[in-house]
From TrEMBL:
Organism lineage string: Bacteria, Pseudomonadati, Pseudomonadota, Gammaproteobacteria, Thiotrichales
Superkingdom to which the source organism belongs: Bacteria
Pfam family, one: AIRS_C
Span of domain PurM-like C-terminal: 178-329
Protein name (record): Hydrogenase expression/formation protein HypE
Length: 351
């Protein structure tokens, strides 16, 4: 099979002057051509047998199946460092990975607006193929719908994922204990700022790119080395503040953030200061907040920093007995403030 980049260029050369029409969602020849000649070349077939309306997959000999689903409606569909295609793969992979599961299979549902250029669709499909290859998952089934102009914004994607949870893996909020440490694998807020800049509404100039990435190998590294992870969540909409509040409320504990330890690029901090945004609430697409016992925190931190996705990992908070159910931040100036759940949405349609 040709490389993904070569395939992309070949298909753009063939279909680049065409646009999606309602016929491509009608179930007829145009739709069959779209699937057979544009979509399937990127994702392949799980077997040599004819396509069916479902994928038939082997079950693991041990462990449990883990399943998730998510929909992606980000605007614009391409932004610095990433695209809706990367998001659709990595976001669903990460929802599986933070359970401790090994992601295996994904579905792909495309809702395409009439008039979308074939070239744009091909670019996004190539991004999905690249991301799936990097995350070592296979897209095994899918669906395509075409809607009237104005019924969606170019392209919406739904992906469902299936993975295998190893025997004995049982992390979760209820395991969080007083004294535990909270680690994050790098700088926060990059994705939110990248989307804001891409929309061009504020004439904002920045070099920040989305942090969109799969977290599987980072998480599996920690588990393979015997780190007893009590809980983990990928830090997406609502940012780090939302995840920490979910931990505090779900476990009935207090969480104390050390402001000086939060990794954040100076450029992201500057954008937030200019626009009046709080980086703790900005979206991320390649970050995980892990809760580990204090005795394992330093070892976990060093392992994370040895991985490309964890070079700037930091210990950002501690689980405490005080202010149960609430998150409080110790500022650089010695004061404290409550970090509540996000009210409303700082930036809509960010994933």
């Amino acid at each position: 099979m040709k490389s993904i980049e070569n395939l992309k260029q070949t298909l753009i050369g063939r279909f680049g002057d065409q646009v999606i029409t309602l016929a491509h969602g009608s179930g007829g020849k145009a739709m069959q051509q779209l699937i057979d000649e544009v979509i399937l070349p990127f994702f392949g077939k799980p077997s040599d047998s004819p396509l069916e309306d479902q994928a038939r997959l082997p079950l693991p000999q041990s462990g449990r199946l883990c399943m998730t689903t998510d929909s992606y409606v980000v605007t614009p569909i391409r932004f610095p460092g990433s695209s809706i295609g990367h998001l659709a793969i990595n976001g669903t992979v990460n929802d599986l990975a933070v359970s401790g599961a090994q992601p295996l299979y994904l579905s792909c549902g495309l809702i395409i607006e009439e008039g979308l250029a074939f070239a744009e669709l091909i670019e996004i499909l190539a991004d999905m193929a690249v991301a799936a290859q990097a995350a070592d998952v296979q897209i095994v089934t899918g669906d395509t719908k075409v809607v009237d102009r104005g019924s969606c914004d170019k392209l919406f994607i739904n992906t469902a994922g299936v993975g295998v949870l190893a025997v004995g893996m049982d992390s979760g909020i209820t395991h969080i204990q007083t004294g535990d440490k909270v680690l994050i694998n790098g700088d926060i807020g990059d994705h939110g700022v990248a989307i804001l800049a891409a929309r061009g509404e504020l004439a904002l100039e920045t070099t920040i790119e989305s942090d969109c990435a799969a977290l599987t190998t980072l998480i599996q590294l920690l588990l393979a080395e015997g780190i007893p992870v009590h809980a983990m969540r990928d830090v997406t909409r609502g940012g780090l503040a939302t995840v920490l509040n979910e931990y505090a409320q779900g476990a009935g504990v207090g969480i104390l953030i050390d402001e000086g330890q939060i990794p954040i690029k100076q450029e992201v901090r500057g954008v937030c200061e200019v626009l009046g945004l709080d980086p703790l609430y900005l979206a991320n697409e390649g970050k995980v907040a892990l809760v580990v016992p204090a005795d394992f925190a330093e070892q976990a931190l060093q392992l994370m920093r040895s991985h490309p996705s964890g070079i700037n990992a930091a210990m950002v908070a501690e689980v405490v007995d005080d202010h149960r159910g609430r998150v409080v931040m110790q500022s650089d100036f010695g004061g404290k403030r409550v970090v509540d759940m996000l009210v409303g949405e700082q930036l809509p349609r960010i994933c």
